[in-house]
Amino acid sequence: MQEEEPTCPAGSSLSQNSERQNPALIDEPTCPAGSSLSQNSERQNPSLEDIMVTRSSMPPYEVFIKAIKPLWDSHWLTNMGKYHQELEKRLEAYLCVPRVSLMVNGHMALELAIQAFHFPEGSEVITTPFTFVSTTHAIIRNHLRPVFCDVKYSNGTMDPDRIEELITDKTVAILPVHVYGYPCDTESIRRVAEKYRLKVIYDAAHAFGVKYKGAGIGSYGDASIFSFHATKVYNTIEGGAVACSDSLYEKMYDLKNFGIRDEEHVASIGANAKMNEFSAIMGLCNLEYLEEELRLRGEIDRIYREEFHGLVEKGLLTLFSIPEETKRNYAYFPVLFQNEAVRDRVCGKLRKQGIYPRKYFYPITADQECFGNAYQDASLACARELSSRVLTLPIYASLKKEQLIRVINAVKAELMAVQSQ
Ligand SMILES: Cc1ncc(COP(=O)(O)O)c(C=O)c1O
Q1: Which of 25, 232, 245, 385 places its Cα 20 to 30 Å from the Cα of 394?
Q2: Pocket mutation for ligand 1, best pick of 229, 238, 359 (most atoms within 8 Å of C-beta)
Q3: Which domains occur in the chain, in start order?
Q4: What are the pLDDT digits (tens) for 46-76?
């Protein structure tokens, strides 16, 4: 019998014919000349020497080209086509959730997931300010009021002990974020939500592939959203999804497709937030390399921890603590410096050396200028403290060992200089 062409595991219609070309910790140059990695940095055209905070993972070129050939021939580019449907099924299995509704991006996934609950205008949603501004925008754009809850110092997730004091007769939901992919205290949040009959919508934009207490992270709460933006652990170029129940899936379908049920029947007033077929194919391709992606990221995370051990012992650097029973995705490598001045000094020094970490998340969303001073008085001491001291360091699968060492040495050198002054 002839040997079969290698096919993708777990039943994908896509086959792979070469290895992913971005293994970490190897020596070949991996950044194509002239490529623009500007999506996550202020630098528009970083040089090959520059080290950005992240770098998009892509399947080998030939794999993607082969995968899009049938699509090219079919001319069926969107409208919940074959690849959209296939990716939904594959992600339901991978994320261990009942249903997955694919969206054009994570923000629309969140905005529409909130909309699906039909909360009365002006209702209050208890949320975290230690996040990307999308979380807060999604609430306000639904004509709801964000009520900011402080976070835990240990890992920046919502502090469940602070939720109850914020509940009023207008509270309808809790919207926590698994920030950096670190699981929230889902059990305590569930208890408060049940006591006050609140919905729980998780922003799991950072948490693709995370498991907590043996369950897929998207299986907690009434709904969870994921981002598949190019800078995330798993990307569909732009994209996102809502993980939800069967009944919510139907609502999400209407909301992302103008409320159209069939050619002559528009059941509700929906938006247009469908994922297109090119993105879905990118997602199917990237899924094949995900385990390797996570392994390589895990190795970088391990080296950072090993190398920074001495600084942590001396109290010069603090790492976030990861809840027990977490299967991680190593989406970010956030570190805390002693204070804002030291953080900014290290950040500035790294930039001068062509290393571009990010102050995720600074300032906290509640203090962003677009909201005026509306939330200035909110009691958010811990979130503000973390935000003033945090820096996320470069982590991505194709980060080479010498690049990683450059980052580590630069941080160490600057902290030693601070200490000796
Ligand atoms: C916490 C959080 N929520 C929501 C989003 C929005 O996702 P997207 O960029 O896919 O729209 C992001 C994006 O980075 C995010 O970090």
Answers
A1: 385
A2: 229
A3: 70-287 (3.40.640.10), 290-419 (3.90.1150.10)
A4: 666 899 999 999 999 999 999 999 999 999 9
Q: Is the dihedral of CA 42, 205, 152, 383 positive or negative?
A: positive
| Residue bearing tokens 């698994």 | 178
Is the CB of residue 57 less than 8 Å from the CB of residue 289? yes
pLDDT above 70 covers what percent of the chain?
Answer: 89
DSSP code at position 120: P
* First CA to last CA distance, the chain: 73
The CA distance from 232 to 9, in Å, is 22
Average pLDDT over residues 222-249: 98
- Output the pLDDT for position 223: 98
Query: Taking the CB of residue 19, how many other CB atoms lie within 10 A of it?
Result: 11
Q: Which atom of ligand 1 is nearest to the CA of 177?
A: 1
Q: Is 155 close to ligand 1, i.e. is its CB under 6 Å away?
A: no
> Which residue, 292, 297, 293, is CA-closest to 332?
297
Residue 57's nearest CA partner among 88, 22, 84, 86 is 22
Phi, psi of 342 (to 5 degrees): -70, -45
Burial of 268 (0-12, 13-18, 19+ CB in 10 A): exposed
Residue 134 CA: nearest ligand 1 atom is 4
- Ligand 1 binding pocket includes 205 (Cβ within 6 Å): yes
- State how far the Cα of 139 lies from the Cα of 201, in Å rounded to an integer: 11
Place of tokens 């992302």: 256
**Ligand 1 midpoint to CA 128 (Å):** 14
Q: Is 200 in the pocket of ligand 1 (CB under 6 A)?
A: no
- 241 C-alpha vs ligand 1 centroid, how far in Å? 11
Binding site membership of 123 for ligand 1 (Cβ less than 6 Å) = no
Q: Which residues pair with 171 in a beta bridge?
A: 124
